[in-house]
Request: fold
Amino acid sequence: MGEKIEPYVHRYVEETKAALSDPYLAEGVARVVPVLLEARKNDRTIYFFGNGGSASTASHFVVDIGKATIRGDGRRFRCVGLVDNVESVTAWANDLEYASVFSEQLATLARPGDVAWGISGSGNSPNVLKAMEVAKRLDLRTIGLTGMGGGRLKEMVEIPIVVPSRSMQHVEDVHLLIGHLLTAYLRDEAPASPR
Reply:
């Protein structure tokens, strides 16, 4: 059995590496960092959201960027996971439609200058797209993390980061790595905010 598994593992790792080797990664991070630093400086909120595995990634971004980036100046990134409010998600899904679970929360919570960060492997999740429509209407900064060519999300956001892969597993692997990369950079390299 081991001889069958080893080539598969090697191929999977090589395909994931290929999805990391494109210049989009450094370019995307370079565009996102100033938006996040501006949000912290101006006490703006960063809203993360997505479905399925992307919901888990959104929650992971919240804890890592919100907690692991605290530095000596005491300033913090104000992060909210719209996927984590189960009561609101289920209420909007039940009373209106599932496509409204994030957009209705943004309509209640968000203020101009906040950041909406949608995560969708396909770039076509209706609730992520609807939330971005509301985000643009409310004058939020918008970031989209996607793959599979970017889908509609790529065209809707100010800063799209599109993983160059058609494999959902590789796309989600790289999404999580991007969160860890951003967290490490914001903790170790980004300039501290003035008080």
Summary: The first strand starts at residue 45 and ends at 50.
